[in-house]
Amino acid sequence: MGNGPEMDFSAPPDAQGHxxxxxxxxxxxxxANTCVMLMFIWxxxxxxxxxxxxxCRTEGTKLxxxxxxxxxxxxxxxxxxxVAAGGESTExxxxxxxxxxxxxxxxxxxxxxxxxxxxxDPEIVVEE
Length: 128
Known about the structure:
Blueprint: H1 24-46, E1 50-64, E2 70-84, H2 90-107, H3 109-113, E3 117-120, E4 123-127
Parallel strand pairs: 2-3, 2-4
Antiparallel strand pairs: 1-2
Helix pairs in contact: 1-2
């Protein structure tokens, strides 16, 4: 795999970095979030869901050890998913959307590659 597009990065401001510039920590959380989102879009197509929108806020919780080493202990995904009912009951469509989200997490290379706990707390809105 190549390096991808060139981007500016900095250490976090509390580690003598620059304010307003992406950090490696930002990129780590964003990579997991983006990978799950793309796999969710793939899964909605497989489950024949009419996806109207997907927005997701993901927060990483880090632990700072006594020796000042740090690690992410949890990634908390909070997706807001809007899907069309498409003639099916709200319950059936909501269940399909949940299964699609589970499949997205299962098949996400990035999410599967982290040792942090992953918590997914979706809001699924079914529109008639």
